[in-house]
Specification:
single chain; globular; alpha/beta; 8-stranded mixed sheet; Rossmann fold; two-stranded antiparallel sheet
């Protein structure tokens, strides 16, 4: 099985999510949207992942390539290819199917619990968060998890989209903070505490990410090699 991994940014790592997909027998093929131009044809792919980014799905940073990503998501839907959208990816799925994405007026940072209506798909966490946008659910979507700020997970046909970061292992979070720690510093959060909590939660985070990926894999009707 082949999964196309759309990485908006060079640091859009797959972490625990990619680890579990490899365990399920998937081959991962990366496309860095901000650097690689037009997304590849979906022929031969069984699933699509769209990972997180330091940008919103609106604004000058994404203008040269966001339409290509949104078209890819609509094409995946037409073909019945399941999409796992993570943070930016969830917002892109919402935007692709008519939901509004906008600034939330506040940021959600660090490890936070979610209210979930489907613990098998989305355990309550805590999950790692790093965003300041929210979105309206697209038509036909079902909300699965939320916080006071807005939706945190939804399903739409074979697709599963989450606003938090199930991929967030210590290496991934460290690379993001090294790239730009400003959001945490503005919020008064000590970087060493964030990283220490990330390391301490590694086993539980890996378990919860695996559960999420497994349910997505089943929902997307992708057979396991095992």
């Amino acid at each position: 099985m082949k999964a196309l991994v759309v990485k908006p940014h060079r640091l859009s790592a797959t972490g625990f999510v990619g680890e579990r997909l490899l365990e399920l027998g998937a081959e991962l093929f990366d496309h860095v949207a901000s650097e690689d131009g037009t997304p590849p044809n979906l022929d031969g792919f069984d699933a699509v992942l769209v990972m997180g980014a330091p940008w919103s799905v609106y604004g000058e940073h994404v203008e040269p390539w966001i339409d290509g990503v949104l078209d890819l998501l609509r094409e995946a839907d037409r073909r019945g290819i399941g999409v796992l959208g993570v943070c930016f990816g969830a917002q892109a799925m919402a935007a692709a199917f008519g939901g509004e994405v906008r600034h939330a007026g506040a940021a959600e940072l660090g490890w936070r619990l979610v209210e979930t209506s489907d613990r098998a798909l989305v355990p309550p966490g805590p999950w790692f968060m790093w965003h300041s946008d929210t979105f309206d659910l697209p038509a036909g979507a079902t909300e699965v998890a939320r916080t006071a700020l807005g939706p945190q997970a939804f399903v739409l046909g074979p697709h599963v989209c989450v606003q938090f970061h199930p991929e967030a292992d210590a290496e991934v979070v460290t690379s993001w903070i090294d790239n730009d720690p400003s959001d945490f510093l503005v919020a008064g959060l000590a970087l060493e505490d964030v990283l220490a909590e990330t390391r301490a939660r590694a086993a539980a985070a890996r378990r919860d990410a695996a559960a999420l990926v497994d349910r997505f894999w089943e929902r997307a009707r992708v057979p396991s090699l095992g």
